[in-house]
Every structure is written in C-alpha cells, then in structure tokens.
Amino acid sequence: MPAALLNPVLDLLTLRGLVTAAEPITARMRRLRVEGDALAGLDVQPGQQVRVLVSGLTLRTYSVWRYDPSGAVELCVLDHSEGGPGARWGRNVGVGEQVRLRKPEGTFTLRPEAGHHVFVGEETASVAFGAMLAALPEGARISGCVETETAGDRLPLAHADRLNWLTRGGTSLPDAVRQLAPAPDGIAYVAGEARTVQHVRQVLVRELGWDRRSVLTKPFWAPGKRGLE
Ligand SMILES: Cc1cc2nc3c(=O)[nH]c(=O)nc-3n(C[C@H](O)[C@H](O)[C@H](O)COP(=O)(O)OP(=O)(O)OC[C@H]3O[C@@H](n4cnc5c(N)ncnc54)[C@H](O)[C@@H]3O)c2cc1C
C-alpha cells in the first residue's frame, strides 16, 4: 500500500513518537527513549508493555521500563543472538527517528496490595520487573531470582540487592526457586522464556504450595517462535 494511504491508517492505530535517546544500558541491551505529544497522559501500570512497529508492518512487544506522563516512554531492547526484526530494530534505531507504537496494555502488572513480591525471570523479564520494583516502597517484602547471560547483562533495578542474581549455565531458574523456597504468602511474577516460565510455575505450585492464582506468568519468547505477541 502506498505511504500516502498507509500513514493515515497507521495514525489511527498507533501513537507516534521520536527517539530522543538510544544508549547501551547493559552489555546487550539498549535503552530507547521515545517522546511525543501523543505519549503524554497515558494510563500505564508498572509491568505493562507496548507493541512497536519495528519494520514495515511487523510488530514486536516491549515492556515499559520507565514512563514519564509528560510524554516519554522508555524501553530496553535485548540484542539476542538470533537477531530477528525486533533485535535489529533495537540495535539500529537512532536518535531523531520516528517510532510508531500501540497504547500500553497487559495484565502482567504489579499487585501493590500483596504482602510479598517474588520476581523470577531472565534479561527480557527484568525490564518489566524494573518498572514494578521502582514502584515498590523501601519497606516492601521483595525476593526472587533473575538469570542473565553474564553479570554485564544485569539491568540497574531498584531493590536489586534483595534479588538472587544467577548466570546462565550455573544453577537453573527452577532450581534457584526451589532453593529460595519463597513462602506462599504473596504474589509471584514469572516471565521470560516460555518453557522456563512453565517450569518455575510448576515448582511454585506443585512443590512449594503456591496457589496458582497467586503466580502471574507471562511468556515473552520461545526458541523457534517469532514474535510471541
Ligand atoms: C509481554 C512481552 C514483553 C516483552 N518485553 C521485552 C523487553 O522489555 N525487552 C526485550 O528485549 N524483549 C521483550 N520481549 C520480547 C520481544 O517481544 C521479542 O520477542 C524479542 O525482541 C525478539 O524479537 P525478534 O524480532 O528479534 O525475534 P523473533 O523474530 O521474534 O524470533 C526469532 C528467534 O529468536 C530467538 N529469540 C527471540 N527472543 C530471544 C531472546 N530474548 N533470547 C534468545 N533468543 C531469542 C527465538 O529462537 C526466535 O525463534 C517481550 C515480549 C512480550 C510478549
């Protein structure tokens, strides 16, 4: 479809912004700040995600790392080794470029009323965890396990000292959760690679006595599958 016809349609479906910052935040992740009038005053819950047009009409989903109600959304995009359109966009997009994204959405969000918050996931999940942790007060009960490829892949998260950090190839996430054995008296947020998410959920529910309704799960990607959402 010619751009003259396509752009008005996309204007109805997406919000437009400009990249105003693009810089490494970990060894393999770039922080992208997107600003625009259309991004002001959105309703954003910590943990929600946006869908971004990364190439032509291809959409990829990214958690909101930071939101500034005056009109800025920040994302952190991993340059994973298989490098699909999302990873390529995250690696190459530069300051001044236009970005089209959908409104923030999703139910994988902080439950502020919980008495205990347990976070389990890897690099991609840690972006959503970052937004959730930043919204928790100093006195909140927080625990969890976050796995990354190397120590250089750890995002600067609020309350990071309350989390167990793992390096891939050592103790697996399900085993780390077994060892942590969080008491089943709060909410667990489990995200990242699909099979690991399932496995961790089983450990919490079957072995550690968690009520399945208290375990929020969200698969972010799966080997061999393209753009899970
Ligand atoms: C709710 C939600 C929130 C998300 N938030 C983030 C976020 O904040 N930051 C972020 O970087 N990603 C996030 N993701 C994942 C993101 O949407 C894309 O899946 C990811 O960027 C890969 O897209 P791609 O086009 O590069 O690869 P695709 O074309 O989708 O996949 C190609 C292949 O690459 C491999 N692959 C995909 N992702 C990874 C990975 N992470 N590690 C190793 N191999 C992989 C798989 O084998 C896949 O078959 C989120 C996903 C969801 C559903």
Care to describe what's here?
The protein is of the alpha/beta class and 229 residues long. It is 23% helix and 33% strand. It folds into two domains: 99 residues, Translation factors (Elongation Factor Tu (Ef-tu), domain 3, Beta Barrel); 105 residues, Nucleotide-binding domain of ferredoxin-NADP reductase (FNR) module (Rossmann fold, 3-Layer(aba) Sandwich), CATH 3.40.50.80. The chain has five helices and twelve strands. The protein has a five-stranded antiparallel sheet. Helix 4 runs parallel beside helix 5. The longest helix is centred in the last third of the chain and has 14 residues. 38% of the residues are buried. The chain binds flavin-adenine dinucleotide (FAD).
Mean pLDDT over the full residue set: 96
User: Structural class of the secondary structure composition?
Assistant: alpha/beta
Approximate helicity band: 10-25%
Integer count of domains: 2
Q: Within the CATH hierarchy, at the fold level, what is the topology of the largest domain?
A: Rossmann fold
> Got a strand count?
12
Bound ligands, each once: flavin-adenine dinucleotide
The CATH superfamily of the largest domain bears the name Nucleotide-binding domain of ferredoxin-NADP reductase (FNR) module
- Indicate the radius of gyration in whole angstroms: 18 Å
CATH class value of the largest domain:
Alpha Beta
Number of helices: 5
Assign the CATH architecture of the largest domain: 3-Layer(aba) Sandwich
Name the overall outline. globular
Query: Helix-strand pattern, N to C?
Result: HEEEEEEHEEHEEHEHE
Give the oligomeric state of the chains in this entry, treating copies of one chain as homo and distinct chains as hetero. single chain
